[in-house]
Amino acid sequence: MDDRLREGTEAHYRDPYYYDHAYKRRREDVRFYADLAEHHGGPVLELGVGTGRVAASIARRGVEVVGVDTMEEMLQRGRERAARLPRRFRPLIELRRGDLKGLRLRRRFPLVIAPFNVFMHLYTRQDFERALATVRHHLAPGGLLTFDVLLPAPAELALDPDRTFRGRAFKHPVTGSRCAYAERFAYDPETQVQTIRMYFEPEPADEPGFEMTLTHRQFFPAELQALLHYGGFEVEAHYGDFDGQPLDDAASSQVIFARRA
After folding, report:
1. What is the pLDDT of residue 121?
2. Mean pLDDT over residues 24-45, rounded?
3. What residues contact 228, with CB distance under 8 A and at least 6 apart?
4. Fold annotation for 3-151+219-260
5. What is the pLDDT of residue 109?
6. What are the strands, taking DSSP E only, across the chain?
């Protein structure tokens, strides 16, 4: 992985408190995966557990979950979240560091999940194949893989990379400092990687501004189904949101259910 992609994979996740603040209103995926875990049963393997948004909710449903992530900062925040769970649920959540492209635990799981665009950090076909090999290694017989990624939006991929889009200013949840926010988007059609540059300017400007890079591999629906097929999986369902709506022009996400073929 080159330096640009490595930075785009890590930078957005180095400040877990800002991360949780930025996505505090994102709850439909948490409910979706918690409902799925409760219905399907555990233990659950969560790839890309982050700060434990989903894992903690699964544990609250009384289902055991093992969460794996590469970023120690996110895992530490996840441990803090787990420690705030009611005592009876704390033993149900295990967080550990690992790379989903090479993870090999000595356990099998009836349900493997990768919420909130985790697979969009798989930038090449080889990366995707390694991730699917990890899933195959850990799935119990008849087990289910469920994950979500964004549905590519051609208008967004065609945005002028020199145009800046202003966002809403915010207060950092820890420091209390106020920041103006803006972002730019650049899409490479050869690699299908979109680079998002986020700009933060303290208000008042008594501290230097900084920027953060996020890179996402875009997966088109037919391509995604082909990758899963040749990776040894059969797609059972492919939805356009977490409520089971069709994959159409109104969809912004892709939610996939697949089993080993």
Report:
1. 98
2. 97
3. 132, 234, 235, 256, 258
4. Rossmann fold (3.40.50)
5. 98
6. 44-47, 65-69, 93-97, 109-114, 139-150, 165-166, 170-171, 178-188, 193-203, 210-217, 233-239, 253-260
